């Protein structure tokens, strides 16, 4: 549709106004992208052909609509891409939590309120403000909620480059941020993309606990801790369970080691701060939750999507990886007859790990 602007306002001036509104709404950066994803489309096809999406069949369900915005939302000409910081604590504190085998480690994006709701509401307010300014226009808001290639679009909009770990990286903000988009039928001038500055760094490949980053810019989700603990509905492969450590919902290791994250800022959004002490909770404390407690404590959280069964599955694996203790064995025994076969299987595995370690002879003294 033709833009309805004041006589003195150009499309570029309108974009500047949109970015100002975005900052007022709490976004750290906004950018404009066109809809040409011809570079990203073959990479997506190859990733799917390799089976790297695992059981995430929705990644292939919509055909070309994911890589062709105008087929998903007819009339789309431009995409307003936005990012919002969410890092709740320093990297030093985060490393301490991850290094403590008794602590339940949850990826930091999931500690607070569900980001889908926060970003979607802010983006809709931005769209409403734009409509008030120029009149009604065609648009649709997305926050990781539809077949949208949000990282390639954000990269085209100048919000960063896609790093070797497949996350978006900004040279002045690292990668601890959420992304959201507004598909519009407005012919807005796009922003220039940034160049890739990963260079020869392989820190994220080396740090991945399960070797899921199989090559630079290639992630096999079937080995990724985030996939195993969140997307996978069935049993976690036994060979990967010991590598998961104390991670019970997602993984932040590749972000922890990325040198660009030394420039990341802590979030100023109270909605993204930890709730119910989940940043410091122990494995045993969370394993003791019943279903009602899980539902109450995860209300409004991205963790709710797991459900009580997968929550206990993940905790059982982490407890199986923890140092042997009577308290852990007792807690696992209490769940040995759980109604869920999925929970029972992982509890039995965890108990087996503890029994095996308990029965191992002490290491010989070589001094």
From TrEMBL:
SUPFAM superfamilies the record matches: alpha-helical ferredoxin
PROSITE patterns to which the protein is assigned, alphabetical: 4FE4S_FER_1, 4FE4S_FER_2
Keyword Coiled coil attributed: no
Co-factor: note: Binds 2 [4Fe-4S] clusters per monomer.
Keyword Cytoplasm in annotation: yes
Pathway: tRNA modification; tRNA-queuosine biosynthesis
Signal peptide: none
Binding residues for [4Fe-4S] cluster 1: 198, 201, 204, 258
Residues holding [4Fe-4S] cluster 2: 208, 224, 251, 254
A Pfam family hit: QueG_DUF1730
Gene3D superfamilies, A to Z: 3.30.70.20
Cofactor(s) the protein needs: cob(II)alamin; [4Fe-4S] cluster
GO BP term (any one): tRNA queuosine(34) biosynthetic process
InterPro entries listed in its UniProt record: 4Fe4S_Fe-S-bd, 4Fe4S_Fe_S_CS, QueG, QueG_DUF1730
UniProt keyword list: 4Fe-4S, Cobalamin, Cobalt, Cytoplasm, Iron, Iron-sulfur, Metal-binding, Oxidoreductase, Queuosine biosynthesis, tRNA processing
Catalysed conversion reaction: epoxyqueuosine(34) in tRNA + AH2 = queuosine(34) in tRNA + A + H2O
The protein's assembly and partners: Monomer.
Function: Catalyzes the conversion of epoxyqueuosine (oQ) to queuosine (Q), which is a hypermodified base found in the wobble positions of tRNA(Asp), tRNA(Asn), tRNA(His) and tRNA(Tyr).
Protein name per UniProt: Epoxyqueuosine reductase
Organism of this sequence: Allochromatium warmingii
């Amino acid at each position: 549709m033709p833009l309805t602007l004041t006589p003195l306002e150009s499309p570029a001036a309108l974009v500047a106004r949109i970015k100002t509104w975005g900052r007022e709404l709490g976004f750290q950066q906004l950018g404009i992208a066109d809809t040409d994803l011809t570079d990203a489309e073959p990479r997506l096809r190859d990733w799917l052909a390799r089976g790297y999406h695992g059981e995430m069949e929705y990644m292939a369900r919509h055909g070309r609509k994911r890589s062709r915005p105008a087929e998903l939302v007819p009339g789309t000409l431009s995409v307003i891409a936005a990012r919002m910081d969410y890092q709740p604590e320093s990297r030093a504190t985060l490393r301490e939590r991850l290094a403590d085998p008794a602590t339940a480690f949850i990826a930091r994006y999931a500690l607070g309120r569900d980001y889908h709701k926060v970003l979607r509401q802010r983006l809709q307010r931005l769209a409403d403000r734009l409509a008030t300014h120029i009149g009604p226009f065609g648009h649709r808001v997305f926050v990781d909620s539809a077949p949208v290639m949000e990282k390639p679009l954000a990269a085209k909009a100048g919000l960063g480059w896609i790093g070797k770990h497949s996350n978006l990286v900004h040279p002045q903000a690292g990668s601890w941020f959420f992304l959201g988009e507004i598909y519009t039928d407005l012919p807005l001038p796009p922003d220039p993309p940034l160049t890739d500055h990963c260079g020869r760094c392989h820190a994220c490949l080396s740090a991945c606990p399960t070797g899921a980053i199989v090559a630079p810019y290639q992630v096999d989700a079937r080995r990724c801790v985030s996939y195993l603990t969140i997307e996978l509905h069935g049993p976690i492969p036994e060979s990967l369970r010991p590598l998961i450590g104390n991670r019970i919902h997602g993984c932040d290791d590749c972000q922890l080691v990325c040198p660009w994250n030394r420039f990341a800022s802590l979030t100023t959004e109270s909605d993204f701060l930890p709730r119910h002490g989940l940043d410091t909770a122990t494995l045993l404390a969370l394993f003791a939750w019943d279903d009602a407690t899980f539902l109450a404590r995860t209300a409004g959280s991205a963790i709710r999507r797991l459900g009580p069964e997968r929550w206990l599955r993940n905790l059982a694996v982490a407890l199986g990886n923890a140092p042997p203790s009577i308290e852990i064995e007792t807690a696992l025994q209490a769940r040995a007859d759980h109604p869920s076969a999925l929970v029972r299987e992982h509890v039995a595995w965890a108990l087996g790990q503890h029994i095996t370690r308990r029965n191992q002879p002490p290491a010989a003294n070589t001094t």
